[in-house]
Specification:
It is built from eleven helices and four strands, in the order H-H-H-H-E-H-E-E-E-H-H-H-H-H-H. By secondary structure, the protein is of the alpha+beta class. The chain has a four-stranded mixed β-sheet with strand order 1-2-4-3, with helices on both faces. The chain is elongated, with a radius of gyration of 22 Å.
C-alpha cells in the first residue's frame, strides 16, 4: 500500500507539473478556447491508464492458471518427491524473504519459471518441467529464489504502476496532439473530426512504442535486483551464477506475452531497448561484481 500511495502521489505531482507547463506554454488557453478542458482530460487519461493496468495485475494469477495448463501442487499432498521438494524449497525461501507462502505450480515446457500475483502474500511461483529436468537442485533453488525475490520486492505491483503512468501520458498526449492537428491541419472548427481520430490512433501507437522502452528498462533493472535477492537468500551468488550460465546454454522457454517480463529468462526482443531481460552475461557479471564487493 505504501508503494501504491507513493507512486500515485508521484504521478499526481507529474500531472500537476505537466499542467503548469502546458499553461505556461499557452496550450491550456488554446485548448480551452476550443472547448477542451485539460484537467478533465488528464483525469480521464489517468483513470483509463491505471484501470487497465490494475485489471491486468488482478487477473494475472487466474490468467496464468487458465492459459498455461499449470499443475498447482497441494502442499498437504504433493504427488511425488520432486513436488514435495519444490513446495518445501519455495516455502523456505518465502520465509527467508518475509512473505506469505506462494502457490507452487509446474507446467510442461522448455526451461523457464515465473512469479505472478497482485499481493505479496497471495502469489504464485511456477516452474517448467524443462527447467527442473535440466538443472541441479542448487540451480533450481537459485531460480526459485529469484522468483521469490520478485514477489518480496513488489515487482509486479511496481511494474503495473509504471505501466499505469506511461499509459496515462500516452492517452493524454495522443489526444492533445490529435486536437491540435484536427484544428490546425484539418481546419475542423466543430467538435472533433477524422483528423483527430486518425492522429490519436497514430500517436497512441508511436507513443506506446516509446513508452514500452521505459517499461522494458525498468523490467531489466528488476531482473538484476531479483538476481541479487536470490544470492542474498542463499547466502552466495554462486548458485545464481551457475543457474544463469546453465540457462545461457539452453533454449529459452517462451511465455505468453503477459507473463514474459516475469520469467527467469526471455527472448532478446526486437532490439535491446525493448527486451524485458538483460543479456545473461550482463547478469552474471553483475553477480560477480557483487562477490568482489563483498
Amino acid at each position: 500500500m505504501k508503494r501504491i500511495i507513493l507512486f500515485l502521489m508521484t504521478n499526481l505531482a507529474v500531472m500537476v507539473v505537466l499542467g503548469i507547463t502546458l499553461n505556461l506554454l499557452g496550450v491550456n488557453r488554446y485548448m480551452d478556447a476550443n472547448g477542451i478542458n485539460m484537467g478533465q482530460l488528464l483525469v480521464f487519461s489517468a483513470v483509463i491508464g491505471f484501470v487497465g493496468a490494475f485489471i491486468s495485475l488482478l487477473m494475472s494469477k487466474p490468467m496464468a492458471k487458465w492459459t498455461m495448463g499449470l499443475k498447482i501442487i497441494d502442499p498437504a499432498a504433493p504427488g511425488n518427491q520432486r513436488e514435495l521438494w519444490l513446495v518445501d524449497t519455495v516455502h523456505q525461501l518465502a520465509d527467508r524473504a518475509g512473505i506469505g507462502h506462494p502457490e507452487v505450480a509446474i507446467y510442461e515446457g522448455e526451461p523457464n519459471a515465473f512469479a505472478t500475483g497482485a499481493f505479496k502474500n497471495d502469489s504464485l511461483v511456477a516452474v517448467s518441467t524443462g527447467l527442473l529436468d535440466s538443472m541441479t537442485e542448487e540451480e533450481v533453488t537459485a531460480v526459485l529464489g529469484h522468483e521469490v525475490a520478485h514477489i518480496a520486492n513488489g515487482d509486479m505491483v511496481t511494474l503495473t504502476l509504471i505501466q499505469g503512468v506511461v499509459n496515462t501520458f500516452v492517452i493524454f498526449l495522443a489526444r492533445v496532439v490529435g486536437y491540435f492537428i484536427d484544428r490546425t491541419i484539418f481546419r475542423n472548427e466543430r467538435g472533433v473530426g477524422m483528423g483527430y481520430y486518425i492522429t490519436v490512433l497514430v500517436c497512441e501507437i508511436v507513443f506506446g512504442v516509446l513508452a514500452s522502452i521505459i517499461v522494458a528498462w525498468f523490467s531489466r533493472q528488476r531482473e538484476y535486483r531479483a538476481d541479487a535477492g536470490s544470492a542474498q537468500m542463499l547466502g552466495s551468488a554462486s548458485p545464481m551464477i551457475n543457474a544463469l550460465a546453465r540457462l545461457g546454454g539452453l533454449p529459452p522457454g517462451e511465455l505468453p506475452k503477459q507473463f514474459e517480463s516475469s520469467g527467469i529468462s526471455g527472448g532478446a526482443g526486437v532490439a535491446a531497448l525493448f527486451s524485458t531481460h538483460p543479456p545473461i552475461e550482463h547478469r552474471i557479471n553483475a553477480l560477480r561484481a557483487r562477490i568482489v564487493q563483498s
